Amino acid sequence: MNLFEFKYDYPKEPKTFGEMIRKARLDRGMQSKQLARLVGVTPETIQNWEIHNRIPESRQNLEKLREILGLQIPVF
Q1: Are 62 and 20 in contact (CB under 8 A)?
Q2: Rounded CA gap, 18 and 51, in Å?
Q3: Structure confidence at residue 8 (pLDDT)
Q4: Measuring CA to CA, which residue among 62, 72, 74 is closest to residue 20?
Q5: Measured between alpha carbons, how far is 37 from 8 in angstroms, rounded to an integer?
Q6: What is the CA radius of gyration of the chain?
Q7: Which end of the chain is more exposed for a tag (fewer CB within 10 A), N or C?
Q8: At what angle do helices 43-51 and 32-39 cross, to 10 degrees?
């Protein structure tokens, strides 16, 4: 997917992991760079998770997302 073609719509009913992250982040009024700082990753990593539906490889990052965004996602 070309990032310039991606539509940054608000996901009212998130169906993917990336949409869940984006919705939770936007619900909290956070920019991707703010979330990145809190999780300890780059803003590009947050965009990768949201746009390309990538799941964090690091268990620690996944746990931080759960805590910061209040997501109900399993930790592997």
Answers
A1: no
A2: 6
A3: 61
A4: 72
A5: 21
A6: 11
A7: C
A8: 110
CA separation for the pair 29, 75 (Å, rounded) = 25
Q: Per-residue pLDDT averaged across 50-71, rounded?
A: 90
Residue 17's CB is within 10 A of a number of other CB atoms, namely 18
Q: Write down how long the chain is.
A: 76
Spacing of C-alpha 31 from chain mean position: 10
Domains of the chain: 17-69 (1.10.260.40)
Q: How confident is the model at residue 75 (pLDDT cuts 50, 70, 90)?
A: low
Residue where the block lists tokens 């990538």: 54
- How many Cβ atoms are within 10 Å of 27's Cβ, its own excluded? 11
Best CA proximity match to 39, nearest among 31, 7, 53, 9: 31
